[in-house]
């Protein structure tokens, strides 16, 4: 691909677990950011990272005019990938969809539109803002079908530290610090095996290639809680119709 061009395929922007756990086929990828939103752990989750009795917390996007949110954009290959994301994010997570502009980190490619999944206060699992110490306590104490809620936070922070070291997300890194502190207080090891589920059997560990337009090298590994992630005006649309 010419680095100045973007394909005509649909792209999706990942700012949470999609950064380190994809589960779908994709082509090109780009590190970069979107504008007008900040990442907050204000969305509840009673399936992947929690239960009905003890919902976990996962990331969503909050409108904030001057904010930027960094993450990873993926070029989707075929309708199967879109159906998978629709089920994962909309059906199970209750996320809505929107289209916004993505700005590639490499500064060479022209900004292009991306699909974004976002939960709002209208979501039935919405938890909203809370003191980060309380959020950390909730995260540390919850787990769901995909594993520990703590893992979600720790892997995401590690992804940014490895791949976007120039980016400082105060909300994320403060939460990471508080989660690790609480894990230590409760004698919870970061090497503790997470529950083995189909979703956790094959976690993609991303490594970003030296060339920004090269495909990601995907290394499939047996997963555990030993976290490591690298990258080379009408009715609102609740879910995509695919």
From TrEMBL:
Name of the protein: glutathione-specific gamma-glutamylcyclotransferase
Any one Pfam family match given in the protein's UniProt record, by short name: ChaC
SUPFAM superfamilies: Gamma-glutamyl cyclotransferase-like
Annotated GO MF terms: glutathione specific gamma-glutamylcyclotransferase activity
EC number of the protein: 4.3.2.7
Catalytic activity: glutathione = L-cysteinylglycine + 5-oxo-L-proline
Record-level GO BP terms: glutathione catabolic process
Origin species: Daphnia magna
Signal sequence residues: none
PANTHER family registered for this protein in UniProt: CATION TRANSPORT PROTEIN CHAC-RELATED, GLUTATHIONE-SPECIFIC GAMMA-GLUTAMYLCYCLOTRANSFERASE 1
């Amino acid at each position: 691909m010419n680095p100045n061009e973007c394909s005509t395929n649909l792209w999706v922007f990942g700012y949470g677990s999609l950064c380190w756990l994809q589960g779908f086929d994709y082509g090109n990828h780009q590190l970069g950011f979107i504008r007008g939103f900040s990442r907050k752990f204000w969305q509840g989750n009673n399936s992947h990272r929690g239960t009905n009795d003890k919902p976990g917390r996962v990331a969503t996007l909050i409108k904030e005019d001057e904010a930027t949110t960094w993450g990873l954009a993926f070029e989707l290959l075929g309708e199967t990938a879109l159906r998978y994301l629709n089920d994962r994010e909309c059906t199970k997570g209750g996320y809505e969809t929107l289209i916004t502009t993505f700005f590639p980190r490499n500064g060479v490619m022209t900004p292009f539109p991306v699909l974004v999944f976002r939960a709002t206060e209208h979501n039935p699992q919405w938890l909203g803002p809370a003191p980060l110490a309380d959020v950390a306590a909730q995260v540390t104490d919850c787990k769901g079908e995909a594993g520990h809620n703590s893992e979600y936070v720790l892997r995401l922070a590690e992804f940014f530290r490895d791949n976007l070291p120039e980016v400082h997300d105060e909300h994320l890194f403060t939460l990471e610090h508080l989660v690790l502190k609480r894990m230590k207080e409760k004698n919870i090891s970061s090497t503790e095996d997470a529950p083995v589920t189909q979703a956790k059997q094959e976690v993609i560990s991303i490594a970003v290639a030296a060339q920004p337009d090269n495909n990601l090298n995907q290394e499939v590994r047996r997963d555990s809680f030993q976290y490591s992630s690298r990258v080379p005006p009408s009715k609102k649309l609740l879910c995509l119709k695919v």
